[in-house]
Fold this sequence. Notes:
Layout: E1 7-8, H1 9-20, E2 32-33, E3 38-39, H2 59-77, H3 80-88, H4 96-113, E4 118-121, E5 137-140, E6 151-152
Antiparallel strand pairs: 1-6, 2-3, 4-5
Amino acid sequence: SGGRIKLYQTFILAVMAIESRFNPFAQSPVGAQGLMQVLTRVHADKYEDFGGKQAAFDPLVNLRVGVKVLQDCIRDAGTIEGGLRRYVGAVETDGSNYVAKVMAEQERLRSVARGVKLPISANTTASAGSAQQPGTKRELEADAGTPYAGKLQRS
Length: 155
């Protein structure tokens, strides 16, 4: 089944940002659930070790299952981009819009993790829940010393 795919934390966060806007209770019309928007009916087997499908809204369980699904998609596709297309279930489109959104969000998160101050507008993912008026700007700042840029290690 191949080796384990290692994913950067910023990549996982970018997928969560685009998929659910970090809402652990998000549910799509097609049945994708939780932070990683896992299609629970398709991946029910992956929830068995965590008590079954009802664990889909447990943030840690959803993250673990979503990362496993994403790793499998990337391994099967052979590339990050191809894996993202599989993960989002790109059938009617080539998935390039989704891939571009995730990759742009990852780059933004990497910059913030390095301590770069970024102006963001109210219509970006990171400020989606804020009470700002459209078009206003604020800065995100992160401690450059934060041990954040490592790879995700599954136990």
